[in-house]
Amino acid sequence: MVAGPAVSVPEPAFSGNLGNLGVLRCHSQRPASNFQRTGSPGASVVINDGPAAPGVLGEPHVQKRRIADRHDRPACEVFPSSGIPRNDVDSPDDRPLHAPATPSPLRAGRSRRTAHPPTSPPRVEGLRLHSHFRSRTMKTTVSSILAIGVCTATIAAIPPTTPTREAPPRIAVAPNADAPADLVVPDQLVIEFRRPGTRAIAASRADGGMLRDASPETATLLELIGSQAIRPQFPNAPVAPKDGRPDLSNHHVVRIDPAVVPGGLEGALALALAHPLVRNAELIGVHPVHATTNDPYLANCWHLSQSNDADVDAPEAWDVQTGDPSIVVAVLDTGVQWYHADLAGPAADASNLGSANGNMWRNQAEANGTPGVDDDGNGFVDDIVGYDFITSPLYGFGCWPGEDCSGADNDPRDFNGHGTHCAGIVGAMNNNGTGVASPAGGYGNGSPSTSGNGVSIMALKMGHSSNYNGSEAGFVGMAAAAEAFYYAAQNGARIASCSWGSSNSGGLAAAIDYFIASGGLVLVAAGNSNNTSQGYVNSRSDCYSVGALDTDDSKASFSSYGSWVDISAPGVSILATYHDSNSPNADGYAYLSGTSMATPLVASVAALTWSQDPTATAGQVWAAIRDSADPISSFSGQMGSGRVNAANALAAISGGGGGGGGGGGGGGGTPCDNATAIAAGTTTFSTTAGTGNVAPAGCGSIYDVNWYAFTASATGTHTLSTCNAANFDTKLAVFGSCDVGSVIACNDDASGCSGYTSALDFEGVAGETYVIALGGYSSGGTGSGSLALTEPDGGGGGGGGGDEDPCDDAIAVTIGDTGFGTTIGSGDFSNDACGSIYNANWYRFTATVDGAHTVSTCGAADFDTKIAVVASCDDVTGIACNDDGPDCAGMTSSLSFDATAGVEYIVVVGAYASDAAGSGTLSITEPDDGGGGGGGDGEVVLLAIQGNPSFDFGVARDEDVVAIDLTTNEAVLWFDGSDVGLGGFRISALDRLDDGDLLLSFTAGGTVGGVTFDDSDIVRFTPSQLGAATAGTFSLWFDGSDVALTTNGEDIDGLDVLDDGTIILSTQGGHRIGSVRGNDEDLVAFTPSSLGATTSGTFAKYFDGSDVGLATSSAEDLDAVSINESLGIISLSTRGSFAVTGLSGADEDLFDFTPSTLGSSTSGSFAAFVIGSVVGIPSGDDIIGACEF
After folding, report:
1. Which helix (H) or strand (E) covers residue 947, if one does?
2. Is the pLDDT assigned to residue 850 strictly greater than 50?
3. 596 is a catalytic site residue
4. Among 161-170, 216-225, 581-590, which stretch is predicted with the lowest mean pLDDT?
5. Predicted confidence band at 247 (pLDDT cuts at 50, 70, 90)?
6. What is the mean pLDDT of residues 831-847?
């Protein structure tokens, strides 16, 4: 790209009033600005400041609050106006900025580690984009100042040649315009209905559809709150998913007329919250934004490499990995200039979304589809590079002239510039002879290239430039942010880069839950307040906050800090791509500063790390980054684990992160190369042994993939199917070769297939070889089933092939659970005792002990099953059979028979009727197993684990309880929450009573089994069966609101009942219960006088964590407790890593405390108890409930 000639227009020195910004004075030793602009539309544009000043560039110690002239006097300084809140880097209520050059808001108050929406109206506070950057204004005097670019900044065309380190100079961090706080959208609410699977409503009063399209009960509610329009917030969201993702299908955005509702917006909110149809209702917060390659400006990218090594070691990392396009990073921001040559390639054209290539994410189904049609069925039309979720101007300031706020659409282009800068830090193309570089930008051939091979940037616009009192200010909306998170999860993004502040409003909490449950990693800017204030997303323990560092590893002057910050990265004067709205078609570059810049830098390193091992989980990637960071001395303990280091992170994931290579990533070849050869017919599979993940363009990610290859024997339509034949949410793709870019077809959920199973058709050619990827929809979503491959002549798809007896091919299984799926027409069984069993599967197992064995599908299949046990394939009499087992829901089956150790038995599982088929779990239990109560004879601990870890039995979800035998380390599924209606809930505390009943508390309120509860309550589960087919009833055991557990901080996250009936509780945050006050590292004792719907009793302090060293960081908040009274030991787990006297560990560990004293003066000693890594809990997962028995 060749720049046009630069024209220099000197401007006079200036002094003027900035209003809320303060007073700017420029000295006359040199012109206040050499304002240069190229007339060439293809020129590279950077914000520049004329001749370099000594000490500004290339030296580790720089003045960040000004640009110095040659006499070391500031060329410009900003002096705060008297009587106004200083916003340099924020107003007194700590609303931050994050990049030099325009006020972009977003910051909110936060409750400590809250992960779910409150049940009362949240307090919404203003935020800024986490960066300091250029602010434009419509007033003449201020325009003269701000157009200079904050302290004599200029815009200059720079030819694409490698500059010296002396030019261009950096822009100083300057105060942004005073952005308002505590804003909400004045006429909208987000409402989550209680009714499972509520019909998605989309109607407006203008077309008369409000009453017609809603149920009568819903219509009454909408009339009550003055609704004018309603739409689903998350299109096509699955109803009650069983894979750990929350149910978002009942979230709707409702526009109201505040004038017709008593109390206006707040009145409507109160009415909605009080309505029995409503689970939750929220306001929508509006927040300000924070603002060895041949790339010409690589030398100016000090954050990648510099002489004092206070950088991310990008060149060292590039020797190992440069990025993989299958790793998608969602940039949730003000949009992205998706046609910037350094992001999308030189052929990208602003008038053609389909021209975007390079490192921009491309939805191939839409790019190659029919304009105006939702080709991939994801609910969004023509979403080729991402989506714009802004439906109307936020709050009512109005759009800045030229900005797009006219409605959500498929064009997420940037106007503000902040989002484009963040995108360039994530994935600007490397070694392309253009602009800048990025850690995960791939490696080109040395010249401009249309295609990129770095990670993929998904552009999600959820903010825009507003006209705030005549000045341009960037704001983001929490409802738009929520919708962007959902889109990112549904379309394969693994990482979300969030350079803005937040509030718990607009459905954001549920959407983040969904993204994380889908396997995503959330990185969020810490803020630019230079204090310890935090926003909502920062407060979550499952989202990771990024602080900013200067060129010498010192804390950036503006960066927020505290024990809640997780990691840091360079964030001062970061050079990256930029969109200048005054030259919208130019490929701009700018220096910006802020935690807004540090965050995408960590996101880029995370993407690079994931590229090295695409099979890794989000927890493993985060652990590799966190644990390999370079230590820093600045603000020790307040800036996270240290400065992110790309080379170290790659070494960490390669050394302990597993697989390497998978999904087309770097290292060790492609798993497709070792694909299993199959023929037409039925192939059984299990994804617990999958070879990694893959993300075909236009398909999103497929996790824990099994690879198959087959050669077509006929030309015509071929069918691949797991329809009704797998016990988990499957996803299929077929390719023309091992190149994931050769995808022919893919499918997630096929029409008419239960359990989110899959089917697809494609045209095959006789003699050609095709490659199949079969895996799960979400990370950790593993299981088993059968894959049916049918060729045009009708061959295949059966259960035994031709005339061969299917019994001869019975699948060998062992004691325990086996997932199965049946297919109509796959073969039938009959004998004299049982009659017919249709569409049968055949299994064989060898008994290891004598005695009564149980074979069961009881409550664990989605169709009317029938089972039989026979001694051999020729046994016409049979040993035992059953159609409908006693107390088995859904006409499922269960039988018992006496087995002899060492003898092999055949088990047949199928349907009662010839037209029935489906999937489920077959359980075979030995006499000493106990049906799900743990394994072995040693000490057993029950655990609830956040993070969806995989064990031999499968995946443990957030609603499940796992029993681990500490003698053998064997894990079994002890309580399956999804079986009893808890799919999508997250257990926060548990205990087991002496009668075998289970006590549970949850991170959010809801209704299950007819019992309505809140997150400060405890429900009692009385089981009729435990294990893989859990059944039983619920009742309310403890009502927290009756005894003053009313705030979010007082939600229960730890529980144990002592022998005398005293209830020991841990709370999520600080608690004030009468005279008993404490923090989240403490335990309280509740002595009940009554329990149930009317709970009463007294509280006392039981354990003071600060007395024994558990108050040094937020990571040491207690979130699990189990007390062994006979041994006098309290077992504890913390929200993050902990360090106490003589012991340290992580959130997947349990540790013992032996008290000398308890109460307000606690003392004692610590010892290790359960080491998570030893019993199979991955690093990064979190024990959130524990009970010994």
Report:
1. none
2. yes
3. yes
4. 161-170
5. confident
6. 82
CA separation, residue 1135 to residues 657, 945, 1054, 1080 (Å): 22, 11, 11, 10
Report residue 578's pLDDT band, with 50, 70 and 90 as the boundaries: very high
Mean pLDDT of 800-804: 38
- For the ranges 239-253, 425-439, 620-634, the lowest mean pLDDT is seen at 239-253
Three-state DSSP class for residue 479: helix
Q: Any idea what DSSP says for residue 424?
A: H
**One-character DSSP codes across 645-705:** -HHHHHHHHHHHS---STTT-SSS--GGGGPEE--SEEEEEEGGG----B--TTT--BEEE
- At 841, the pLDDT band (50, 70, 90 cuts) reads confident
Nearest 10 degrees: Cα torsion 288, 516, 622, 973: 160
537: pLDDT strictly greater than 50: yes
Distance CA 363, CA 354 (A): 10
Token pair of 978 as six digits: 């999804």
**Catalytic one among 49, 243, 295, 333?**
333
Question: What are the start-end ranges of the H helices in 66-182?
Answer: 140-146
Residue with tokens 């069984």: 829
CB 239 within 8 A of CB 249: yes
Q: Which of 294, 659, 611 is nearest to 454 (CA)?
A: 611
pLDDT confidence of residue 1098: 93
Which of 140, 136, 135, 100 lies closest to 14 in space, CA to CA? 140
Q: Which of 1089, 1092, 1096, 1068 is nearest to 1080 (CA)?
A: 1068
Percent of the chain with pLDDT over 70: 75
Q: What are phi and psi of 471, to 5 degrees?
A: -115, 150
**What average pLDDT is seen over the chain?**
76
Among 438, 503, 593, 596, the one annotated catalytic: 596
Rg over CA atoms, the chain: 30
Q: How far apart are CA 1083 and CA 1101, in angstroms?
A: 7
Cα–Cα distance for residue pair 507/491, rounded to 1 Å: 19
C-alpha–C-alpha distance, residues 245 and 958, integer Å: 9
Residue 76 near residue 152, CB atoms below 8 Å: yes
Asked whether residue 436 carries a pLDDT value surpassing 70, the answer given is yes
Q: How many CB atoms lie within 10 A of CB 855?
A: 29
- Residue 451: pLDDT band (50, 70, 90) is confident
Q: Alpha-carbon distance 679 to 769, whole Å?
A: 11
98 to each of 509, 604, 821, 827, how far by Cα in Å?
Answer: 23, 18, 53, 65
579 vs 302, 414, 588, 602, CA distance in Å? 21, 7, 6, 22
Identify the helix (H) or strand (E) that includes residue 421: helix 418-427
Q: Which residue among the candidates 418, 579, 853, 1071 is catalytic per the annotation?
A: 418
Domains of the chain: 186-282 (3.30.70), 298-656 (3.40.50.200), 671-790 (2.60.120.380), 806-925 (2.60.120.380), 940-1188 (2.110.10)
Q: Which residues pair with 951 in a beta bridge?
A: 954
**pLDDT score of 454:** 92
Residues paired with residue 524 on neighbouring β-strands, in sequence order: 498, 545
- Hey, is 820 helix, strand or coil? strand
Residue 287 is among the residues annotated as catalytic for this protein: no
**CA-wise closest residue to 313 among 644, 6, 695, 535:** 644
Helix ranges (H only) for 542-640 are 595-612, 618-627
Bond from prior residue into 163 cis (ω within 30 degrees of 0): no
- Taking the complete model, does pTM exceed 0.85, yes or no? no
pLDDT at 740 (0 to 100):
63
pLDDT bin (cut points 50, 70, 90) of residue 679 is: confident
Closest CA to 497 of 605, 394, 642: 605
Cβ(908)–Cβ(868) below 8 Å: yes
Closest CA to 564 of 1015, 947, 111: 111
DSSP letter assigned to residue 337: -
